[in-house]
Specification:
33% of the residues lie in helices and 28% in strands. The chain has helices at residues 17-30, 68-81, 88-91, 121-126, 128-134, and strands at 4-12, 34-38, 42-44, 55-64, 100-106, 111-112, 117-118. By secondary structure, it is α+β, with helices and mostly antiparallel strands. Keywords: ATP-binding, Folate biosynthesis, Kinase, Nucleotide-binding, Transferase.
């Protein structure tokens, strides 16, 4: 499979948020993906749940040989390795988290399954912090 251009959003609101994001990027790279571009860090309030912990977020463009589902499996493995316990798809709601990695776009693919929706419409159209981070990436 040839290289696929993917836009990711990463966020953390527990521990050293910037270091968590940097470690996640390193793990994404170590898994055989090429990180092409990374946005500035953006601090934001939690969305769709209440917490006193502020989020640190970034957007990243990567190039990958993985299919969308393979990439999802890869990033979910990284989240678990880094200590993420609750996945919002599984638990049915959002909570504080060490790391959150979302696939926003995968080339120009439109894809929907129980586990994954590409493009990620909430981040593209509903969340202010996402639109700020993605303005130069989409």
């Amino acid at each position: 499979m040839s290289q696929q251009k993917v836009v990711l959003l990463l966020g953390s609101n527990l521990g050293d948020q910037k270091k968590n994001i940097e470690l996640a990027l390193q793990k994404i790279n170590d898994a055989g993906n090429q990180i092409s571009q990374v946005s500035e860090f953006l601090m934001s309030d939690p969305v769709e749940f209440v917490s006193s912990n502020i989020f640190c977020n970034i957007a990243a463009i990567i190039f990958t040989h993985l299919s969308p589902i393979q990439l999802l499996d890869c990033i979910k493995k990284i989240e678990v390795e880094m200590g993420r316990i609750n996945d919002s798809k599984v638990s049915g709601g959002y909570t504080d988290r060490v790391i959150d990695i979302d696939i926003i776009k995968y080339n120009e693919l439109n894809f929907t399954s129980e586990r994954l929706e590409i493009p990620h419409k909430k981040h593209l159209f509903e969340r202010d912090f996402s639109r700020i981070l993605l303005k130069d990436f989409i």
